[in-house]
Amino acid sequence: MHSVLVLDFGSQYTQLIARRIREIGIYSEIVPYNTPIDEIRQHNPGALILSGGPNSVYGEEALHPDERIFDLGVPVLGICYGLQVIATHFGGEVAVSPKQEFGRAQLLVNRQDGSAESMLFRDIPDSDVWMSHGDKVVKMPEGFRVTASSANSEMCAIEASGSRAALKVYGLQFHPEVQHSLYGKQLLSNFLIDIAGLTPDWSPKSFIEHQLEEIRSTAGDATVICGISGGVDSTVAAVLVSRAIGKNLHCVFVDNGLLRKNEAQKVMDVLRPLGLRITLVDAEETFLRRLKSVASPENKRKIIGRTFIHIFEEQIHEEKFLVQGTLYPDVIESVSVKGPSQTIKSHHNVGGLPKRMKLKLIEPLRELFKDEVRAVGRELGIDEDILMRHPFPGPGLAVRVLGSLTRERLDILRNADEIFLEELKKHGLYQQVWQAFSVLLPVQSVGVMGDKRTYENVLALRAVESSDGMTADWAHLPHDFLSLVSNRIINEVRGINRVAYDISSKPPATIEWE
Ligand SMILES: Nc1ncnc2c1ncn2[C@@H]1O[C@H](COP(=O)(O)OP(=O)(O)OP(=O)(O)O)[C@@H](O)[C@H]1O
Ligand SMILES: O=c1[nH]c(=O)c2[nH+]cn([C@@H]3O[C@H](COP(=O)(O)O)[C@@H](O)[C@H]3O)c2[nH]1
Ligand SMILES: NC(=O)CC[C@H](N)C(=O)O
Ligand SMILES: [Mg+2]
């Protein structure tokens, strides 16, 4: 199976490029812009895409790919910064533009220059595209032609032609991957299917078949341990691995004392029908002891990540591999392994892992987004109730009791959160939001209850809409509903006298508070 490699120059839209390609039915992966040519060859790519990026190709901090990518014999499409890389590589010039373009622009496809229409623009009329650039091509590279223009960039789309046509190198100043570029997906499809000749055969089913082979060849006859949480990702990962290696899979569910109310029991009940071999480990003591008096979010996350691995290691008998349900957003936000993107927070299962580990990782979902994992789960026949659960982070309530943890504060949060989730379900709102939870703030406020002054904790409710957790908007829950939840929590949960609703989107906030 050929994949498309996206070389990441740090664009905010890099993941969107990969997504759009998969929506077309072609598998794609993102690698850092400077991945060496030998590594690129190992992926056996059917096409390369160079992403946009914040730098300028003529600046001191310009990022350059391995130049030999242009000799691989596979078609290359550069987007924005990627176009500018192509233009300079082939002898053209890029300079700062007197007029910048951000947002909507009108694309004029060049059909009048006597040459044949570009295959890239087949079935694409003059239409709206989305721009985000301050530089532009000012001198064409030799052996290239202009195939489209916009008001502020005359050389808005270029491609190798004439004696260089066989190179199949294309560049676009606009971003075809964003929804506002009306024919963007059609354009990507023209590039991948018509020009690169790829077959759109990526589907949950083909993904599963491919992964089953990969897992079998990695694991061989070895036994494998899998951290399972009752969440969507680890359940799908465990079912997939158990399909591949059967009884050699041993699942461990860690009760880290940071779970929701009665969660451990509920999860064991839900997972039982899947027929997996699961050990429940009670590690509350260990986690809470190690987290005692730790207030910094990053420290909490790292301690939790390490403790998970220690607990897994205690459970190992002859296992050599650890399966995790790590997803793409966990990876991209934790470490900048995939190019020049920034570390936002250390997800416990990626940035929180200890430096030395006895176990080797198997992470079959590492390149997928949540909605794709759900589609894979559906194909595997996993129950909708499990697949549609809200995500729950591995560090659990530790990142929702802000500041230092105590068992008492965890319990206050558990009781409040239970009411919130119960009411969401009762009102048919649970499935309408992507994730919902409560956060116990390290703040006390004054209240009056039964004529008495109170000085108690403040709780924040958070509910968001999202498709992959990368961006999110706060959910506009009905006011009557919020009022009912607030009332119940203040009346029923000892220790809370005020409830607030979080109305921040991601970005600039994140979904969790820590
Ligand atoms: N309590 C736990 N016991 C064992 N492993 C866990 C636990 N919590 C998290 N993990 C491991 O960490 C991985 C990442 O957690 P994460 O919350 O992202 O995924 P998930 O729990 O499987 O799914 P979801 O995002 O839907 O909650 C899990 O896939 C699992 O391998
Ligand atoms: O397994 C996990 N381990 C973590 O360390 C972690 N941190 C955040 N999350 C979940 O990821 C999504 C995005 O969260 P943020 O906007 O807070 O980064 C949201 O769904 C969060 O709940 C985590 N999941
Ligand atoms: N979005 C981009 O790739 C921007 C590229 C380059 N920095 C410019 O401003 O033109
Ligand atoms: Mg989880």
TrEMBL record:
PROSITE patterns the UniProt entry points to: GATASE_TYPE_1, GMPS_ATP_PPASE
Pfam families reported in the protein's UniProt record: GATase, GMP_synt_C, NAD_synthase
EC nos: 6.3.5.2
Catalyzed reactions per annotation: XMP + L-glutamine + ATP + H2O = GMP + L-glutamate + AMP + diphosphate + 2 H(+)
Group of enzyme by EC: ligase
Keywords tagged on the record: ATP-binding, Glutamine amidotransferase, GMP biosynthesis, Ligase, Nucleotide-binding, Purine biosynthesis
Known role: Catalyzes the synthesis of GMP from XMP.
Protein name: GMP synthase [glutamine-hydrolyzing]
Organism in which the protein naturally occurs: Prosthecochloris ethylica
